[in-house]
Amino acid sequence: MKQNSQTLYLVLENGRVFRGEPFGAEGEVMCEMVFATGMTGYMETLTDKSYAGHGVIQTFPIIGNYGVIPADMEGDKPYVSAYIVRECCDTPSNFRSSGTLDSWLKSYGVVGIKGIDTRSLTRLIRERGVMNGMITKNPEACDLEALRAYSVPKDVVPSVSVKTVEYHPGNEGGPRVVLLDCGYKKSILDCFLERGCSVYIVPALTSAKDITALSPDCILVTNGPGDPVNNPTIIETVRELWDTGIPIFGICLGHQIIALAHGFKTTKMKYGHRGENQPVRRHTDGRVFITAQNHGYTVVPESIDPKKGKLLYSNVNDGSCEGIEYTENGSFTVQFHPEAGAGPRDTRFIFDEFISRMKNRRAGDV
After folding, report:
1. Which of 44, 276, 322, 339 is labelled catalytic?
2. 156-362 belongs to which homologous superfamily?
3. Residue ranges, the chain, pLDDT below 70
4. Were both Cys, which of 106, 187, 282, 334 would link to 341 (CB 3.0–4.6 Å)?
5. Contact (CB, 8 A) for 113 and 20
6. CA distances from 59 to 26, 89, 103 (A)
7. Rounded CA gap, 184 and 222, in Å?
8. Catalytic one of 142, 252, 273, 322
9. Alpha carbons 335 and 294: distance in angstroms, whole number
10. Is 89 labeled as catalytic in the residue annotation?
């Protein structure tokens, strides 16, 4: 295969090779390839910690057209392992832009490949399922055995979590929220602060004793990357916290971890839900919401013990579990992202439900 300095390759574990051009940082990288369907929000996608260990394929054909906007970042840096696009815009136009996507990715060492037929690549993953891939200049040297054996590291959640407790004050006398950080998004924090809550963000492996010492009115187990079963310490912490009677909520990975703490089961999806256009139905009234999502695992609906909880939301497209209402502590969880960032804000009312249940508990009604 003829090669030159302006050629880069994406090799999939099934041996399929896609030819493209480099952008972002130079280097080789191996990761799990997933696709995201958002037409906008690439800054939020790139900085979402839930994408750690993944190479993100953008299905929208042109990326980078509004440049780099630091205010839109959901984390402190990009967390994707690699970035795959059809076209990267080198001449962004936006009054908020501070530079090009190419230069920004270079500054953080994120390898990108452009000029890929992302439509064909996405269809392949939809048909066959998520695959590992390697971005390289030399596809003949790619070790397919090692590529097939790759998996997102089991300790990925602690690696992206905060390292020390962070405190964000809210209104005097307002609810106190503890975010058990598995890879939280800034928009989640913002949604609580906008509602007057004081927020403690604690590392993923914080003990139940240390969490309850903060006297929270509510605990939120956040989103994050990887397989939920690889977090036994956090699962056990949730079990211990459940016995305190404090309302515990979960978003995305947090939803899955809370389910596992109750003995429910999770499974890996064929290609997951990633993007800002996932329809979700609420079982209480049949109403459908368009939601932002980013996950490759799901709670098995049949595993939900009716004595402990019931299905609250389901995905309209495939029927997968999108939320659980628990019988104790006034707790519930959602698989989707109510904070959006980026995406529709149809379900931000869920934060108001969180706060309402916290206040009811304070008043002794829960």
Report:
1. 339
2. Class I glutamine amidotransferase (GATase) domain (3.40.50.880)
3. 1-5, 362-366
4. 187
5. yes
6. 23, 15, 21
7. 5
8. 252
9. 9
10. no
Residues 21/26/32/35 CA torsion (nearest 10 deg):
-40
CA distance 201 to 178: 6
Eight-state DSSP code of residue 352: H
Q: What are phi and psi of 164, to 5 degrees?
A: -135, 165
Q: How far apart are the C-alpha atoms of 318 and 214, rounded to whole Å?
A: 40
Domain boundaries, the chain: 8-149, 156-362
pTM of the model: 0.95
Q: How far apart are CA 257 and CA 223, in angstroms?
A: 10
Contact 316, 332 (CB under 8 A): no
In this structure, whether the domain defined by 8-149 belongs to CATH 3.50.30.20 is answered with yes
Burial of 354 (0-12, 13-18, 19+ CB in 10 A): buried
On whether the CB atoms of residues 250 and 220 are closer than 8 A, the answer is yes
Going by DSSP bridges, is the β-strand pair 8-12/17-24 parallel, antiparallel, or unpaired?
antiparallel
Measure the CA–CA gap between 186 and 80, rounded to whole angstroms.
16
Token pair 């307002």 is at which residue? 174
H/E segment holding residue 167: strand 166-168
255 is catalytic: no
**Catalytic residue list contains 339:** yes
CB 357 within 8 A of CB 366: yes
Helices (H) and strands (E) in the chain, counts: 10, 19
Structure confidence at residue 173 (pLDDT): 87
Distance CA 240, CA 244 (A): 7
